[in-house]
Amino acid sequence: FLVLARLLLPVEFGLLAAAQVFVALSRALAEAGLSRTLVQKPTLRAAHLDSAFLVSAIIGAVLALIMAATAPLVADLYNLPRLTPVLLALSVVPLLVGLSNVPDAILSRQLMFRALAVRGMYAVVSAGVVGIALAFLGAGAWALVAQVITQAVVAFVVLWVSARWKPGRQWEGPA
Question: 69 CB contacts (<8 Å, ≥6 apart)?
């Protein structure tokens, strides 16, 4: 952060801050409490995991589409035309969150906190390297956008590799 603060202008941080409001909201909605429910459920079957994954993935995809579709409106609301492409790029984040809920719950349920910590560490370090490299290359606010996306993608990949779970086709409706 300190390196980026020296390389980028405050207006570039402001652009990302305006977008992060919507990214944080979509991230919270994409989590939808499903992963915590899976962690706390006394008996967990494959159908529970598959059902939660499907619902979570759909919620993440819908939120990503909503974020992308409303990007021009939000940019107009803020009177920041440069915000539209930023929000469009960041709309991948709620999708990745939706796809990550079940593997995250599996690792938490199995008390594999080391794997979760490693996930976070790899994501933050990779994102930092990408952000700083792009800032040095003059990417401006896009260095920050790439940093957020890199963090989400790396966290997603490391999580799925660590969880070693693959979704099936079982479905369990509401009880």
Answer: none
